[in-house]
Amino acid sequence: MSFLPEFEKLDREEVRMRLYSCNADDVERVLNKKRPGPEDFMALLSPAAEPYLEELAQRAYTLTRQRFGHTMQFFVPLYLSNLCANDCSYCGFSMSNKLRRKTLTPDEIEQECLAIKARGFDSVLLVTGEHESRVGLDYFCNALPLIKRHFSYLAMEVQPLSEQDYRRLRSLGLDAVLVYQETYNKTSYARHHLKGKKTDFNWRLQTPDRLGKAGIDKIGLGALIGLDDWRIDSFFTACHLRYLQKAYWRSRYSLSFPRLRPCAGGLSDIRPMSDKQLVQLICAWRIFDSELELSLSTRESPFLRDHLLPLGITSISAGSSTQPGGYASENPSLEQFATDDKRCAATMAEVVRAKGLQPVWTDWHPGFCR
Ligand code: SF4
């Protein structure tokens, strides 16, 4: 059982035509609906919803406060390695980029943990490139217990693994895994993923199934905005989410909205999304699913982040470094992409408080969710 058969039934061109033919009546009908489905979500994503930004924002705000209260979770990425055996057109870690490669040793991991802990974080997202032989299961099995001693919640964004591997990592304290499909358009996917195991679209697409079967507490989805039409990719992500929620109802789900950022060897043919469209997308997701954790990273500018915080976002990173050793070392390696919001965690906590929200440093303890 996996999402693949459902995915194959979806005709991208037909989705495009239906989405772009939504009108104002469709949008108004969905704004008053209690439980919108993927078809309704399509109207919220459509160009017809753009004039309704104020209504979308108000509804998103209300739903978020009803479900999550006045809270904002904080997390920070911990880059363990920039080794990668893939070539992706948009990423500074691509194997063809000539850069100093670095994988943190146990001592260096300890130093990073202490530096992150000193900034107040209790929830970390472990990030690596995708290098099966040098930064694979054995490396993770050694690293996780070291890191778990310092933090109560561990998420990972690494190469897709097998169900068995996820079970093993879960037993070592892994709580959440983020695996972005990047784009649900197979043709665009092939154009941007040029070499390595990541070229296998279906293996990646079925990763959330393996996570659900392994009983991972939280599964993160998303499309990389800029690779293809964000409206259509978001609709496909919603179909993926609904399938997973039915099949693996014990897991929680989160969603991110990464927009392509400049990086070494950067990409020119991106399909940009405006700031207003990002607001539309975040509000549309909140209205579509009031339970979903929506996360916003430091890719976005301080101005935009400050204005988006109350609308639907429930979790943010702050003071992020996208390079291995970036918190403790004075000579870190090359970054994966440039962040825009450079404010430290303490400053962001002040910003959050000024918005009437409470910074939360510890995520739910997984023991409460099972
Ligand atoms: S996006 Fe991921 S897999 Fe692709 S080059 Fe960057 S680190 Fe490697």
Automatic annotation (TrEMBL):
<dbReference type="InterPro" id="IPR034428">
    <property type="entry name" value="ThiH/NoCL/HydG-like"/>
</dbReference>
<keyword id="KW-0408">Iron</keyword>
<dbReference type="InterPro" id="IPR058240">
    <property type="entry name" value="rSAM_sf"/>
</dbReference>
<dbReference type="InterPro" id="IPR013785">
    <property type="entry name" value="Aldolase_TIM"/>
</dbReference>
<protein>
    <submittedName>
        <fullName>Thiamine biosynthesis protein ThiH</fullName>
    </submittedName>
</protein>
<keyword id="KW-0479">Metal-binding</keyword>
<dbReference type="InterPro" id="IPR010722">
    <property type="entry name" value="BATS_dom"/>
</dbReference>
<dbReference type="Pfam" id="PF04055">
    <property type="entry name" value="Radical_SAM"/>
</dbReference>
<dbReference type="Pfam" id="PF06968">
    <property type="entry name" value="BATS"/>
</dbReference>
<dbReference type="GO" id="GO:0009228">
    <property type="term" value="P:thiamine biosynthetic process"/>
</dbReference>
<dbReference type="GO" id="GO:0051539">
    <property type="term" value="F:4 iron, 4 sulfur cluster binding"/>
</dbReference>
<keyword id="KW-0411">Iron-sulfur</keyword>
<keyword id="KW-0004">4Fe-4S</keyword>
<dbReference type="GO" id="GO:0005506">
    <property type="term" value="F:iron ion binding"/>
</dbReference>
<dbReference type="InterPro" id="IPR007197">
    <property type="entry name" value="rSAM"/>
</dbReference>
<feature type="domain" description="Radical SAM core">
    <location>
        <begin position="70"/>
        <end position="299"/>
    </location>
</feature>
<dbReference type="GO" id="GO:0003824">
    <property type="term" value="F:catalytic activity"/>
</dbReference>
<dbReference type="InterPro" id="IPR012726">
    <property type="entry name" value="ThiH"/>
</dbReference>
<keyword id="KW-0949">S-adenosyl-L-methionine</keyword>
